Amino acid sequence: MFYRPETGHGLPHNPFNAIIAPRPVGWISTRGSDGDNLAPYSFFNAIAYVPPQVMFASTTAKSDRPGMKDTLAHIAETGVFCVNIASAALIDQMNASSAALPAGVSEFEVAGIDAADCTTIDCPRVAASPASLECRATRVQRLPGDANWLVIGTVTGVHLRDDCIQDGRFDLQKDGWLARMGYRDYAAVHDIFELERPE
Q1: Angle CA(151)–CA(152)–CA(158) in degrees, nearest 5?
Q2: Are 28 and 182 in contact (CB under 8 A)?
Q3: For the CA atoms of the chain, what is the radius of gyration?
Q4: DSSP 8-state class, residue 49
Q5: End-to-end distance of the chain based on CA atoms, in angstroms?
Q6: Is 100 within 8 Å of 136 (Cβ atoms)?
Q7: Could you give the 3-state DSSP secondary structure of residue 90?
Q8: What residues does the Flavin reductase like domain cover (predicted)?
């Protein structure tokens, strides 16, 4: 099978986001003048070590935020955001925070998620998250499409849950790394293996 995206794939469901999988879930928290917000993004990844940098893309809009979501509006206002790592153990809370709530309504409160303060930025974070990355936005760029945005941030602070540090390494094997597989599919990764690069 071959198809051109502009002419369509002819399948009952778009295969694109299932092809590029698994993808980590960036659970992005922000604070704006209208309150706190929390939403999961599966177009998310790390992009550099030094300084540590991350990116995520927002691809939908809300009726009360023309052309964007609350997350983008808050980042445009404050220039900061926090990436909370959503482990498989937190999948129900993560999913609950994906509801399209009106601007100004906190997903932390609606989904019953405990918040904690960030250290280097004025932003909430998910208290139970295995890791949280405090970020300052360095680029917010419009992408082709109706509501597609790219956000790049530099990490200014890192929170690690103490029980997720095993033998000096960050380890989510107990909780399970959460990954988006495409469509409505997710994966909980518990089995890992090491692979040495060639000399």
Answers
A1: 120
A2: no
A3: 17
A4: T
A5: 39
A6: no
A7: helix
A8: 18-172
Distance CA 149, CA 146 (A): 9
Domain count within the chain: 1
Identify the three-state secondary structure at position 56.
Answer: strand
Residue 152 in tokens: 């790049």
* Long-range pairs of 1-4 with CB within 8 A, sequence gap ≥ 24: none
Q: How far is CA 141 from the centre of its chain?
A: 17
Q: Cα–chain-centroid distance for residue 132? A: 11
Residue 148: which domain range?
24-189
Q: Which residue is it, tokens 């990490």?
A: 155
Cβ atoms of 32 and 70 within 8 Å: the answer is yes
Amino acid code (one letter) for 90: L
- Domain assignment present for residue 61? The answer is yes
Residue 58 near residue 68, CB atoms below 8 Å: yes
CATH code at position 94: 2.30.110.10
Q: Are 94 and 86 in contact (CB under 8 A)?
A: yes
Compute the distance between CA of residue 71 and CA of residue 68 in angstroms, rounded to an integer: 8
